[in-house]
Amino acid sequence: MATSGSRSRMVWLGVLTVLAAAGLFWLSQGESATVADATHAPRDAVPAPAPVVAAEPTPATAIERAEVPDAALPAASDATLAHVKGRCVDEDGKALAGCTAKFDGWGRAGNDVAMQGKVEWHDPEPVVIRDDGRFDFAFAPPSGFQFTLELQADARGPRTGRWGRIEPAQLIDLGDITLRRGFAVRGRVVDEQGAAVARVGVNLRNLPLPIAQNMAANDTRYGLSDATGSFTIEVPIPAGTWSLDVDSRGQRLVSPDRVTVDPVRGAEPVLVVVRSQPSIEGIVVDEQSLAVEGVGISVEVNRSGRMASGRSKKDGTFMIFAVDAEPKPAKLQIDYPGPCEPSWHDDRLWEWGSKDVRIVLKRALAFELTVVERGNGAPVTRYAVSCWSEPLLSSLQQDLRLSGEHEGGRVTVDRVWRSKTRLTVAPLDPALLPSASVDFEVTDDGVPPIRVEVERMQPAVVRATTPGNTPVVGSKVEVIAKSSQPLRIDEYVADPRLGKPGSSSDPKFRFHELRSSGITDQEGRASVLVPDDHSQLAVRVTGSGHPSVLVDPALFPLTQDLVVVVPEGGAIVGTVKLQGIEPGRMSLQLEHGNGQQLPRRNRDAAVLGADGRFAFRGLAPGSYRIALAYSATWQTEHGGIIGAVPLDLQVPEVAVEAGRDTEVTIDATAFVLATVRGRVLVNGGPPGSCRVFLQLGGGPRFGQYTPAADGAFEATGLLPGSYRAGLVVGDFQAGEGDQMLCDDTFVLAGGEQLARDFALVRRRLVLRLLLADGKTPVANEPCECRSQGLNMRRTTDTDGRCVFDPAPAGAFQVYSQKAGDTPLGPFEIPAGKMEHELTLTSPAVKAK
After folding, report:
1. End-to-end CA distance of the chain
2. Low-confidence ranges of the chain (pLDDT < 50)
3. Host domain of residue 720
4. H-helix segments, 303-409
5. Cα(350)–Cα(320) distance, rounded to whole angstroms?
6. Is the entire prediction scored with pTM above 0.85?
7. Among 642, 663, 653, which residue's Cα sits nearest to residue 587?
8. Residue 413 belongs to a domain with what CATH number?
9. Sheet holding 661-667, edge to edge
10. Do residue 658 and residue 600 come from a single domain?
11. Contacts of 331 (CB under 8 A, 6+ apart)
12. Could you report the per-residue pLDDT of 295-342, keeping only the tens digit for each?
């Protein structure tokens, strides 16, 4: 049985949109630096390499296996091609003919796109899959691209995939992908008086569409209402109860908040009722009273979830619609200043319905920048710029911009704020180093023209060999400029081309920075680029077939290759036997037998393949331990996370020898997932608008589940263990809502099919906060109640009151910044009371 405390060092959490979309480097928690045996060898047989230039990507091609013979597939020797493939099947595992597969690619937001330059990419034509249900997309992925896959068949719910990054030559085999039977969902949108409302998007959310549990793929489908209010969701929807919401500026959903699709009859027509929301309107002007376009304004809120925001139009006007069910007077803030400085600040609370907000901003300045090559003064025409005001630390400003071709090396840098400012230039040519930072003060007098010089690096070769002088093929070679701290073998290395690596209060501190990288060829040689100054360089060699190697310091001779001797590594390969668990919900973690952590590259394996296979490669000889974890999905109305729950499974230590694959079989069939078919009741009746979750022990939560109108829900894929049922209530359309827990726990056995009711009690708490004089209210301030690991936040009114409905269960503490940093309490609502009023006086802060 899984226990929340077992193997606590093996628990890791990830934000789902980040894990799936960002493709981040992980910060090191690894072992001490290892210095490899580095020697110098003649370079006579290999001419000096040209500067590394990114290859122009090829258009993606779709390969339909049933139609194209194997001989027509892309050649295996073409190492640039990645593959995304799989097989569409029905609920019985039979191949589905007639499915349409669409594969798309587009640029990621941010600095990745800025630095990749112009890319010629063409989405492949959609493929109609034939009798064997198979598809295979082959393509050379551009470095700054993200990708999506959509699978659709008649009368079946679609399946989707999304990848924030795909590497060249990467093989993504999705295995069998089930497309469930689906039904049309139709209805009509009306206001509270029954009149039709046009152009409202009706969304069904948290649908079971992503191909993998840990994938931030599209799980929402919508339909747009026409002039009569009628809408049809764009795709068939599988059976179940699904979350419903609307997407239209100025409209808020009244009812219903869910749709039930019957597995036989489908869905009844849905009458969606919406309400027009109040707005705050105004104008944005500059210091000359001229209209300013493109300024982002939002309501300042003390919660996560949906934001009330707007953007100024060409005439400077803006309109912000409320999103909360009961909107309260609100402060406004500048999210994006556009062509101005974010100098506006106003503590006033604006009533909804206000139409006279006037925001006056100061126009930002601009200066002329010229970039040349150091030494010869040749213009550098292809680059991007980061120009930001140091005290404000605005990520919007730190991002690279103005990327492209600049004639004569000149560009006008706009959006410069009056402040201490830092400028860096990132050339698109990888042979040119990013510039050093240029710091200057911006005043009303403007900025004189700035000339920046960048250094051209020189080509070099790193040759990786085994101790027996056999070339090491396909390994990554990185040239690293070391920071002021020691460089560990698995250290995070910032790429300065992708923006500012970070900040430090120590002016002498420097981050480790990547200078160039390459992949070793059939002769073990990688073409890299090195700066003239070799004094602070290191070389790291990583690969799937050997332990990582660090050469520190790395000195590049003028006429020779830098030879790195790579020790031979071993591997742990194997199979995890599962019973009824999708392999994609399992992950593995590796550590030394003595408990010492490994470099993260070796420590975390990918999720299991469709056949349960896994591999840890490039391991140094020694003894290792493997742990398994199961993904607990927590999916709210506004996002989600994946919690990895360790399995209490004792796997014998594995001995790894150099040059050998150690085969391992892990029997996890004892872990059989359970199902709960339940019904939630609140104060003895149907729960109304809510979402359900199940909490395992005091840790991970499974859900949220959308219950039917009578409170019925189904939760599948549950680990055995002790659980507590809970509800999310309140305004979860706009925010995360409030959570309330059932008083009693229940135990699930492996494979159990549990059917039961869950009774919850909803109480109401009115809380009033006063300062130390016992009279002055703590007005218009955030207030928080904490109980049983759940936090509920409110803002006090002018009399210091706030209402918690539901009230916290059991003992709770109250936190308020103005009432002092020390929590007040604990308190508890008296037994048997459904409503309770509590007045608290803080001794920490005296009234003025």
Report:
1. 58
2. 1-59, 62-77, 393-395, 397, 603, 844-848
3. 674-760
4. 395-398
5. 11
6. no
7. 642
8. 2.60.40.1120
9. 613-619, 570-577, 661-667
10. yes
11. 299, 300, 346, 347, 348, 349, 350
12. 999 998 877 888 999 999 999 999 999 999 889 899 999 999 999 998
